[in-house]
Design brief:
Leucine Aminopeptidase, subunit E, domain 1; O-acetyl-ADP-ribose deacetylase (Regulator of RNase III), contains Macro domain; Macro_dom; Macro_dom-like
């Protein structure tokens, strides 16, 4: 599997699936979550409401992932994952790693070959860029070791230079 880092807008990425740094409600929010909901159009919110009505009445747990269609996005699938919120006392790096691994599990179930991630839990959830980058790269590499040939490419698509530098460093160090 090829693992790459780039600066860009996740909502414009042509991949089989993009990963949304969602909140547990799945009903939209700020940052990456808000941008994905805006770009995907109102059918994404309707799909998330249906998930809440049926299979996830209490919301999506931290560290887990679930997919919806991408609707108006270039990517046919959106994989929603809920990262741990440091400000709320969720400081377990295992939960952070789980976001990446569970998202890849869902991608493999969808038969996606290319997946693009944001820096889940960096930003408003309070995790340092370096910590997120190390956890993300380690989780993806570990998942690939256990699931060889399941995916062709994982891209980390980051919206600022601080995140880009952190992920570049993590990729080189791993």
């Amino acid at each position: 599997m090829e693992l790459t880092v780039e600066r860009g807008d996740l909502t414009t990425v042509a991949a089989d699936a993009i990963v949304n740094a969602a909140n547990s409600s799945l009903l939209g929010g700020g940052g990456v979550d808000g941008a994905i909901h805006a770009a995907a159009g109102p059918r994404l919110l309707a799909a998330c409401r249906e998930l809440r009505r049926t299979t996830l009445p209490d919301g999506l747990p931290v560290g887990d992932a679930v997919a919806t269609p991408g609707f108006d996005l270039p990517a046919p699938w959106v994989i929603h994952t809920v990262g741990p919120n440091r400000h709320a006392g969720e400081t377990d790096p295992g939960l952070l790693a789980s976001c990446f691994a569970r998202s890849l599990d869902v991608a493999a179930d969808l038969r996606a070959r290319t997946v693009a991630f944001p820096a889940v839990s960096a930003g408003v959830y309070g995790w340092a860029a370096d910590d997120v980058a190390r956890a993300a790269v380690a989780a993806v590499r570990s998942w690939d070791d256990e699931n060889p040939a399941a995916l062709d490419e994982v891209r980390f698509v980051l919206f600022n230079d601080v995140l880009l530098e952190a992920f570049d460093a993590a990729l080189v160090a791993a």
